[in-house]
Sequence to fold (575 residues):
Amino acid sequence: MGLIYKYKERYWKQFGVAVVFVTLEALCDLAQPTIMSQIIDVGVAGRRLDYILYMGGLMLLITAVGALSAFVRNLISSNVSQKLGTELRLDLYVKIQNLSFENINSLDRASLVTRLTNDVTQVQALVNGLMRISLKAPLLCIGSLILAIALNPQLAMVLAVVVPLVAALIAINMKAGFPLFAKMQKALDQENGVMREYLSGVRVVKAFNRFDYELSKFDEVNKDLQAKSVKAMKTMAVFGPGITLVMNLGIVSVLWLGGLGVNSSQMQIGHIIAFINYMTQILFSLMIISMVVTMFVRARASAERISEVLGQENNMKWSAELTRQAGMRGRIDFEDVSFSYDGPSGEPVIRNINLTCLPGETVGIIGSTGSGKSSLAGLIPRFYDATAGVVRVNGDYIKDINPKSLREIIALVPQKTVLFTGTILYNIKMGKADATMAEVERAARMAQAHEFILSFPEGYQTQLGQGGVNLSGGQKQRIAIARALIRNPDILILDDCTSAVDMATEAKIREALRKYADQVTSLVIAQRIASVVDADKIVVLDNGEIVGTGKHDELLKNCDIYREIFQSQAGKELQ
Fold:
């Protein structure tokens, strides 16, 4: 459980205080049977009422001290476990935020959600248990063993048989439980994945009446989780009764041997009662240890899954901060660039790209679906690193630049519009947190979003549902464009971001961008030639390679693929 040890520097003092109070509580519990045996053998047997009252009062006082110790210990353990859980979730979230796309793609999204929630809860419960019953149980067990042996070595022979049997059961419990709980957590991942997929595509499911299919799919993973959970719990359930049975057989043996000893006047009744109490405490502590072992096994599986994320190393390295060289703001160079999502050994999605985008230039990138347009654009903000060749921004080798600094000068409107729960104003100001209202409105006007925003009763304070569900596709795209424009970047990447916008509105957006983009390098990725027809340079991609570069008229004459795309669309309207 190295994951917990990572936080020991923060909480070792509180943990130490908890140990003190747990020890005090255990000592109070251990003192009770001995005092009781004295009351019986001395007070009751000798008919000494004063002794009975004195020792009874002492028992009450010790009980009160034990209860107070338990109260303080509970406060400390709850506080520490909750804080640790909070910090662990935050550390996980920060780690995920700082990972590259390549790292994140290697981890299932639904699994990340499970690790942030259920897995952290399991570790948190273990920490809480460690500072409470987990510490008390071994102290109580060891103390009871010592006092029982000191009280009556003959009866203690029963313990010499019982304790090793119980220890063996606990060891088997731990070994059998870990793989079962690991499988259970993976089954929970699968269930979360199905639910996440359904919620993200609920409109499509309803539109095509596929609810029955989705229900059967969820039912399948739900029953798989049930089966794995039941198997794990059944396996764990065997050991608790087994331990109880062994200990109760030990208690019966003590009663039998003790009865023989009393009959032969070799043992006192008080000693036998105290010994049975110690046996009961040993039984209780061993049951707690068994329960903690189950908790530990489950938490260990969760901790390994959390550690897998925390142990991820961001594969993007850099050595310098971004420098804006004179006359180089917004320049992009691709020098013999190839890229594969599966690394150097994978099939490249773009090959041997040589392209220069000059400052202030508008470059259109067009090609069929799957030609590598978005993959090429994703290399500029360093979402991924090229597997071969060099990408430069402002003349700097992109691998030498801190990605955070690099992205400060780049604004991106992704192909799939992403809006967040909050106001329209909040979503636009994500591009520039300190933007004034005048800057927000200016960006919205350029994106042709200002008028429809004002048509809402609350205007820019209109609350958006998750993903902007209460807006149309075109409205969401225009807000995303406004969010990018307000950033005032050196490089603007528009990745097929007007596909849901009508032609007239798109023409107004292009006109606004033409005025805005005098000093901004714009990359316009599009399916429609109308979106790039006025670009300073159009790049045609096919199967990951550049097959044509030039202006619209040049490409119509010299590039067969561009001409085919043109003719398949409303070509006459563009002439």
In short: Residues 332-574 form a domain with the Rossmann fold fold (CATH 3.40.50.300).
